[in-house]
Amino acid sequence: MKKLQILVMAAIVAIAFASCKKEDKKTAEISSPQFQAGQTITNDTLKGSVKGTMQSGKTYYFYDQVTINAGDTLVMQSGVKLLSLSPNAQLIVKGSFVSLGTKDNPNWITGVDAYNNPSKYKIFSPQDPNSDPGLKPSGMLWGGIQCDKTTTLLDIKFTHLDFAGGTASASNPPSGYTSGSLLFVIFFQNPDGFLIFEDNWVFGTSSDVIRANGGKVHIMRNNVEKLSYNDGDCFNVKNSSIGDMAFNLIAGTAKGGTKASNKGTYGSVQTQINMYNNTYISGGYRSVDPDRGANINYEQGAKGYAFNNIFVNCKTGLRILENPLADTANCRYGYNLSYGDSLRTVNNFYPPTHIARPSSHDIPNPSTFYPGFPGSYTLGQIYNAPALVGQNNPKFVNYPLPITGVVSLYNFIGNYNFHLASGSPAIGTGYTGFTPINATAAVTNEYLKATVTPPSIDLGAFPTNGNGNQH
């Protein structure tokens, strides 16, 4: 049955892009060939129902809901800017949406003023969340990418998605929302659809960056900063979601960083997500729920692997939920590094209120703060480890550790450099004895397919071989 489903989806993808062709070099603004679907869009303002190709290097505008109908495709070639003229601007995807920025020619979807005056919106210094323009729903400049249950493919690469979210309108809320609810940057809800999200930048949201109620997902090598005022996880998937979240740099989440739950009945597949080689910075401090804030989170029947991650000054470490119970028999984790500049932080590397079991391969080794570990360790054991404060510095190339101010306000990436400097304890201490799930393998088109990075022996998003996060 699974093989049949994959073949069917491969056929759907092939049909969806049967009319696609390489752009005539005479009309391209850069020399490399460009992917195209349908006709070139000549109007500079999108409205109503749209399909076709937004041409490389061009600037387009939108001000209200723009719909890509089932069976239709909208493509952004590299170097395209799609700028909102109103917070009401949204992409409603019922068919397929593709944004193919490149490292040298990224795409942008944001507000027109934020693009033209970035320093007015993007503040790279500790800020009071109550006045920070990147965190309030009322400050969002467009309504995100809202996918319907018919969405076949959402494929976003090297794209800046800044200040997306807000609240669902009373008159015309997107599918899956109720009036007034917070909008996700991306909402995906087709368990048989493909979600490829790689090498992107996200700044400022009102809630989750990605919420997936099912889907075959690939989320790799993205940078996310200043996420939500008080009620947002970063990458948050539910029942029938399967895939990988890896080599992401996630700074300043309101709640969790990467989260998997089998909650809901969106399909017939158990949620399975691998979360590896991510770097989490100062996350979890603005949650309205005091029990939230773990930057890796498995809940309610979800399973997967969580290896080679770095946690720095996060509210809590790995969270395996006991009620409703995660699929603990099929959760594997370890080889993670935790660092904290306060006693409260280090005492929650393993939150005692939940059921994550310490791994002898973690940094720091649990035997240094759990007396008698592993022989006399008991699940949920409370510990007190003042000697860990400021220890096991991951030695980023440029980031102020130890932090002498309020760690929760260092919720941004800015111009800091999270590559590993020589002598870092994160170099060479990882685990590579597993393979990515590669759930989007059926997407084989050379432009559209995912680039899957396998686990690295170095911890975090920026391994020293240069094969991880490309920002």
Kindly report how far apart the N and C termini lie: 39 Å
The radius of gyration computed from the alpha-carbon positions, rounded to a whole number of angstroms, is: 21 Å
Q: Mean pLDDT, nearest integer? A: 92
Task: Identify the overall geometry.
Answer: globular
Number of beta-strand segments: 33
Proportion of residues in extended strands:
25-35%
Number of helices: 4
State the helical fraction. Answer: under 10%
User: Describe the biggest sheet?
Assistant: 19 strands, parallel
Overview of the structural elements:
The protein has 471 residues and is mainly beta. It is 6% helix and 30% strand. The protein has one domain. It has a 19-stranded parallel β-sheet that branches. It has a ten-stranded parallel β-sheet with strand order 4-6-9-12-15-18-21-24-27-30, with no helix packed on it. The protein is globular and about 70 Å long.
Short structural description:
By secondary structure, the chain is mainly beta. Helix content is 6%, strand content 30%. The protein has one domain.
